[in-house]
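Q: Convert this sequence to structure tokens.
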Amino acid sequence: MEGAWWCCKYYYIKYTYSPPLPSVYSLVKGVSKNDQGQFLTEFFCNSVIKYSGRGTYKREIYVESFENVTAGRKEYECAKVKFTMTYEVRYNTGEPWRLYKWVEDGYIWYSEIGMIKAEYTVKTYFSDELKKKMRYR
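A:
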């Protein structure tokens, strides 16, 4: 499974997961699930690979409840999923920031058509030091 995280106008990071990140749609209230795996990553600058690396991920999820959520003038019955996702990457570079770690922690609301809403916090660490904290909605 491939994914891309866009940093800004000129940079982006591409990930290839092994095994693919599994779905959480089949979970029911009170069920928790943990999984982990590896991924390869490439850091692009102006469409040129600047760095490449190898990483690991660990995901912990728990279905807290079911709620009705309105999105786009429609109401969906959703599973409210508490999740924590931890990523760690080691880039093939001599830069002091080559060890890169980030943690996503929050909630995602899923319906039968997929993700409806997400609220989570991302904490980013470079070489084990907290550098920035961002809030996504």
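Residues 1-10, 130-137 have pLDDT under 50 and may be disordered.
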